[in-house]
Amino acid sequence: MWTEEKPVLRIQKLRKQYGPGCALCGDGGQGNLQDNFCPECRTVYACRDVSLALYPGEILGIVGESGSGKSTLLRCLYFDEEVSGGACYLQSYKEGRSNIFLESSQQKRYIRNHFLGMVYQNPYLGLRMDFSSVANIAEKLIAAGERTVGSIRIRATELLEKVNIPLYRSGEAPRHFSGGMQQRVQIAKALSNNPPLLLLDEVTTGLDLSVQANVLDLIKRLQRELKISMLVVSHDLSVIRMLADRTIVMLKGKIVEEGLTDQILEDPQHPYTQQLVQSLL
Ligand SMILES: Nc1ncnc2c1ncn2[C@@H]1O[C@H](COP(=O)(O)OP(=O)(O)OP(=O)(O)O)[C@@H](O)[C@H]1O
Known about the structure:
Keywords: ATP-binding, Nucleotide-binding. GO terms for molecular function: ATP binding; ATP hydrolysis activity. InterPro entries: AAA+_ATPase, ABC_transporter-like_ATP-bd, ABC_transporter-like_CS, P-loop_NTPase, PhnK. There is one protein chain. With 281 residues, the chain is an alpha/beta fold. 36% of the residues lie in helices and 22% in strands. It has a domain at 9-121 and 198-279: P-loop containing nucleotide triphosphate hydrolases (Rossmann fold, 3-Layer(aba) Sandwich), CATH 3.40.50.300. A six-stranded mixed β-sheet has the order 5-6-7-3-8-9, sandwiched between helices. A three-stranded antiparallel β-sheet has the order 2-1-4, with helices on one face. Helix 7 links the parallel strand 6 (197-201) and strand 7 (229-234). Helix 4 (133-143) packs across helix 5. Bound molecules: adenosine-5'-triphosphate.
């Protein structure tokens, strides 16, 4: 279905290590490790040669246990972390010809403000809790170059309406909102610059089941309406099952399996994926 189109995002051999590495763990963690950890120099190899492509309008799920490197991958893509190696290309930036990891910090800011949206598990990372919801969205719009106060206000209220935040609460600070509402404001903020790519990191973890279902429905609806491509990270296969067209399974910093979500659920190949699928039954 997606193979004839150019990918919105291509990642090649992304590596992220915390620590210097040593002779024992070898180049990029190819040597002796305990899981993703070198007992000699205490380096953690959080992402090891992760490669993937994301196609227009696709939701790609990334599932894996705690510590498998999912969040690190998203943080690297959003430039919250410096990568240790690898390349990443965005079709909307220089027609996918430039490795964005090698761009200057000014260009990285530009890419982040114009082409990326991020929703964190912890809303405190994505929102200014004491600003009003409208001001939170305005901040991102201004960063993306919008200067007209009237247009900013209209766009912000339009977005908050889209994520079901009642108009009469749009002047309130997210600090006074429930967890589900905070996530919806984060989503509105992340969408404000019309990014071709939205990154979602465990967005429903910690929410009540009914609130979780509500946020997942919202993400699905927005994807259908806006045709935006999404990378969705979760440790919970039921979340991935609900959202993702295709799924990547990560374990100890590496991709161990990938395929259509239905295919992975029906016929998991890797023992870890089999275990994950089993736990759903
Ligand atoms: N700043 C850091 N310094 C050292 N190690 C880190 C740092 N951040 C993450 N790690 C390590 O990198 C590995 C991957 O962490 P990451 O948060 O990406 O995992 P995850 O799959 O998202 O799990 P979780 O959902 O629990 O956060 C873990 O072993 C973690 O301890």
